[in-house]
From TrEMBL:
<dbReference type="InterPro" id="IPR050178">
    <property type="entry name" value="AspA/AstE_fam"/>
</dbReference>
<feature type="domain" description="AstE/AspA barrel-sandwich hybrid">
    <location>
        <begin position="44"/>
        <end position="125"/>
    </location>
</feature>
<dbReference type="GO" id="GO:0016811">
    <property type="term" value="F:hydrolase activity, acting on carbon-nitrogen (but not peptide) bonds, in linear amides"/>
</dbReference>
<dbReference type="GO" id="GO:0005829">
    <property type="term" value="C:cytosol"/>
</dbReference>
<dbReference type="InterPro" id="IPR007036">
    <property type="entry name" value="Aste_AspA_hybrid_dom"/>
</dbReference>
<dbReference type="Pfam" id="PF04952">
    <property type="entry name" value="AstE_AspA_hybrid"/>
</dbReference>
<protein>
    <submittedName>
        <fullName>ACY2 Aspartoacylase</fullName>
    </submittedName>
</protein>
Length: 138
């Protein structure tokens, strides 16, 4: 599957659809070239691996008591370090990130995840290395 965004639920955006078409075209071009026997050299790419789903702070009744801090809003894929603002309570108190490493949050404050009790997910940036790739003909 291919997910391109962010895009509000129920909205069709031309720019996002164009990005999706380009990604699918690149994927199909790769499959065609691979099937034609093209050799692809080794490569390394940075990716983000999901670590943890983080819920909103809640009271004893399960009600949300804080919102995403304005400095975190719209900062998907940006580094979040220990002590950075994370949530803002309805009383104006800042709840900082308390972690032992830098993480890269994503899906921050996505409406589709409220019912799943997910304010965002943390990811770690890792490098993946692929060896050369070529179709072997038997």
């Amino acid at each position: 599957g291919v997910e391109v965004g962010p895009q509000p639920q129920g909205v069709a955006r031309a720019d996002v659809l164009d990005k999706m078409r380009k990604i699918v075209k690149h994927g199909l071009d790769f499959v065609q070239l691979f099937n034609e026997g093209k050799e692809f050299p080794p490569c390394t790419i940075e990716v983000f691996k999901i670590m943890e789903k983080v819920d909103y702070p809640r009271n004893k009744n399960g009600e949300i008591i804080a919102v995403i801090h304005p400095k975190l809003q719209d900062q998907d894929w940006q580094p979040l370090k220990n002590g950075d603002p994370l949530f803002l309570t309805l009383d104006g108190e800042v709840i900082p990130y308390q972690g032992n490493c830098t993480v890269y949050p994503t899906f921050i404050n996505e409406a589709a995840y409220y019912e799943k009790k997910q304010a965002f997910v943390t990811t770690e940036k890792i490098k993946l290395t692929a060896k050369h790739l070529r179709l072997s003909v038997s």
